[in-house]
Amino acid sequence: MKSETSVEVNKGFTYGLRQSLTIVIGYAPVAVTFGILASQYGLAVWEAGLMSIFVYAGASQFIAIEMIHQGATVWMIGLTTLIINIRHLLMSLSAVPFFPERTLPWSLGLAQGLTDETFVLNTKILKDVHEEETRRRVMLGINLGSFSSWVIFTILGGVIGKWLPIQFSGFQFALLALFIILTTTSLSKKNYMTYLLAAILAIVFKLLIPGKIYLILSVAFAAGIGAWWRKREKEESRCHSNF
Fold first, then answer.
1. CA–CA distance, 235 with 232 (Å, rounded to integer)
2. Residue 5: which pLDDT band, with cuts at 50, 70 and 90?
3. What is the reported pTM?
């Protein structure tokens, strides 16, 4: 890491907050869109805001308001949300090694702030931060900036939707595009084979297995094989250095 960047990272929270701006830019149109749709589907502004606070999951929220509009039960909505977001279990396990001295409140806060976008950005940045306390402050800045923007722009969208009859389509793609950009920037010589393997496995499993479980399986297998390969390389390197 360059010395100028190291100085910035040591600022911790403010550095993380600034880094979250890349996510905020992507979140803003999606959150406004969600707020507008929520208001058009009959939710009050405060109800849309509370959903963004307690659910904080873009795709799940869009599906949830559609299911609410169609009269689905709470259990159906909850189960659907669980299935869509079960990948977060794997992402949480990947983020945990950055915080070996974590407490339960910190773990709960980490889980609440974890999204596809914050996971990718945190993973990219935290691997170069040496002290756990600094990593905590950086992650808090990234997660809090992203979370706050999602809630604020949801409320703004809800207000707009109440006053302006807007018809639109295609805004949901902004979130997917942001995730692709963040993932691409996290690629390196050390991990690109793992990403490539995950993509190939996802295609194969998609052809063989019905439903969405193929996503979890492909990521789990690729991550496991990638971790095993990295460990094997380290052991071989250690053996060569002993000779």
1. 5
2. low
3. 0.68
Lowest mean pLDDT among 70-79, 137-146, 162-171, 210-219: 162-171
Helices 132-163 and 104-113: crossing angle, nearest 10°? 40
CA–CA distance, 4 with 160 (Å, rounded to integer): 42
Amino acid at 139: M
d(CA 155, CA 44): 10
Neighbour-count burial for 172-188, b at 16+ CB within 10 Å, e otherwise: bebbeebbeebbeebee
Query: Distances from the Cα of 45 to the Cαs of 39, 87, 89, 160, 170, in angstroms?
Result: 7, 29, 30, 10, 22
Q: Give which of 177, 109, 181, 93 is closest to 143, Cα–Cα.
A: 109
CA distance 44 to 148: 19
Q: Which helix (H) or strand (E) holds 231?
A: helix 213-242
Distances in Å between the Cα of 172 and the Cα atoms of 31, 42, 62, 185 are 9, 20, 9, 21
DSSP 127-179: TT---HHHHHHHHHHHHHHHHHHHHHHHHHHHHHHHHS-----STTHHHHHHH
CA distances from 86 to 20, 51, 93, 94, 178 (A): 24, 18, 12, 14, 20
User: How far is residue 95's CA from residue 105's CA, in Å, rounded to a whole number?
Assistant: 15
Could you give the count of Cα atoms lying within 13 Å of 206 in the half-sphere of its Cβ? 8
Do 28 and 188 form a contact (C-beta atoms < 8 A)?
A: no
DSSP collapsed to 3 states, 53-91: HHCCCHHHHHHHHHHHHCCCCHHHHHHHHHHHHCHHHHH
